[in-house]
Amino acid sequence: MTTAPAHLDMPLTWEDISLHAQSLALKLADKGPDNGKWTGVIAVTTGGLVPACIVTRHLNIKNIQTFCVSSYDDQTQRKARIIRQPTDCGDGSGWLVVDDLSDKGTTLRLIREHLPNAHYATIYAKPAGEDAVDTYIMSVSQDTWLHFPWEENEKSYKAPGSVSAA
Predict the structure, then answer these.
(1) Residue 62 has what pLDDT?
(2) Are 69 and 107 in contact (CB under 8 A)?
(3) Could you point out which of 35, 37, 105, 137 has its C-alpha 20 to 30 Å from the C-alpha of 75?
């Protein structure tokens, strides 16, 4: 009898991320509160850095901040903790917060406590985290584990097409 896996693995390539982040930028274009423009972008570290870079390039945004939150140890999610937050973004009005994924929404909800009026955008969202994000490109099932290309050195990373030992 074969046991179903506890989760589904979805390896993502740099090309996937680029395409999906560009799609996010297109969805956000001309949606900023200042005649369609955003005050700036706040990248959620570390997963939001690459998507934020692509979004800022496509939207021609030069004002970039980071909000550093730690909430995972490899594949284990734990209580989110703020490492560093921007100090000059007020309540978030006019700012676009970008992350790679809203899994359970824990990280974005924590940031929203500090920046309640920012607009929250991710490339991917899972059902338990969809309510924490304002704009996203792709919904994935809660049991899907996304493997981002910048995670190659993590224990959980499996290269596309790799075979695990039984």
Answers:
(1) 96
(2) yes
(3) 137
Count of domains for the chain: 1
Assigned domain for 129 exists? yes
Q: Which residues are catalytic?
A: 99-100, 103
Give me the domain span that covers residue 30.
Answer: 8-149
Q: Is residue 163 part of a domain?
A: no
CATH classification at residue 18:
3.40.50.2020
pLDDT in tens, 7-64: 888 999 999 999 999 999 999 999 999 999 999 999 999 899 999 999 999 999 999 9
52 closest CA partner among 40, 41, 62: 41
| In a domain? residue 161 | no
**Residue 156 domain-assigned?**
no
Average pLDDT, rounded, for the chain: 88
DSSP the chain: -PPPPSSEEEE--HHHHHHHHHHHHHHHTT-BTBTBB-SEEEEEETTTHHHHHHHHHHHT---EEEEEEEEEETTEEEEEEEEE--SS-TT-TTEEEEEEEESSSHHHHHHHHH-TTSEEEEEEE-GGGGGG-SEEEEE--TTEEEE-GGGTTSTT---TT-----
